[in-house]
Design brief:
Layout: H1 16-42, H2 45-61, H3 67-80, H4 84-105, H5 114-124, H6 126-152, H7 160-191
Helix pairs in contact: 1-2, 1-3, 2-4, 3-4, 4-6, 5-6, 6-7
């Protein structure tokens, strides 16, 4: 149940879906490392690490796509054969634990960037902002559902789940979760007295 299917192909750069997943991973890892280096240059290494870590938890907890957790879920799948959907759920709880620890020990770290200020507000004001966490969790699970399939096949034509349900799920994610998330963030920004254009 936790492990990938035994008939799943091993990771190979000859498979188009595996190359696509690897490029996504490299791009996300590069962005995270560059952000950490920038924050370390702007403040210091420990502060840069804290801000980069909190920013990572923002993308794990507060966005309806699996890109934040994918940075760890992909290598864990390659090394240990554990499904990315299982890893994503575990990473969600780890991100939550990191934020609880940071809120109790060093809540000033949240004040350093706009993104971490939003994260702190979402986490500390349950109603109505925890709906962002719930929407994001649901969207992330749907997103990673297809990410696991990308690793289970060797080409896009073999993606049965995607061909059977891809358009429905994509429409649900883009329209449903997108509108709800943008609306939630709009009211969040408004409650923080941040001027929203338009």
């Amino acid at each position: 149940m936790l492990k990938v299917k035994p008939q799943s192909p091993h990771f190979n750069l000859k498979h188009e879906t595996h190359v696509e997943v690897l490029l996504k991973f490299l791009m996300l890892a590069f962005i995270l490392v560059a952000y950490f280096l920038y924050m370390s240059w702007k403040y210091d290494a420990s502060t840069g690490f804290a801000v980069a870590l909190l920013s990572w938890t923002f993308f794990v907890l507060c966005t309806p796509v699996a890109d934040g957790g994918f940075i760890l879920a992909f290598p864990i799948r390659l090394l240990f054969g554990i499904k990315m959907s299982i890893t994503q759920v575990v990473l969600w709880f780890i991100a939550l634990a990191i934020n609880i620890f940071m809120l109790l020990s060093d809540s000033n770290a949240y004040e350093l960037t706009y993104l971490t200020q939003l994260l702190k507000h979402i986490l500390t004001v349950p109603y109505p902002y925890w709906c962002i966490l719930m929407l994001s969790a649901a969207g992330t699970l749907l997103s990673i559902y297809f990410g696991d399939e990308m690793m289970d096949v060797t080409s896009h034509k073999n993606r049965e789940l995607h061909h059977r349900h891809g358009l429905k799920y994509r429409a649900l994610i883009v329209v449903g979760f997108g509108v709800l998330t943008v609306t939630s963030y709009y009211f969040l920004l408004k409650s923080l007295n941040i001027q929203v254009p338009g």
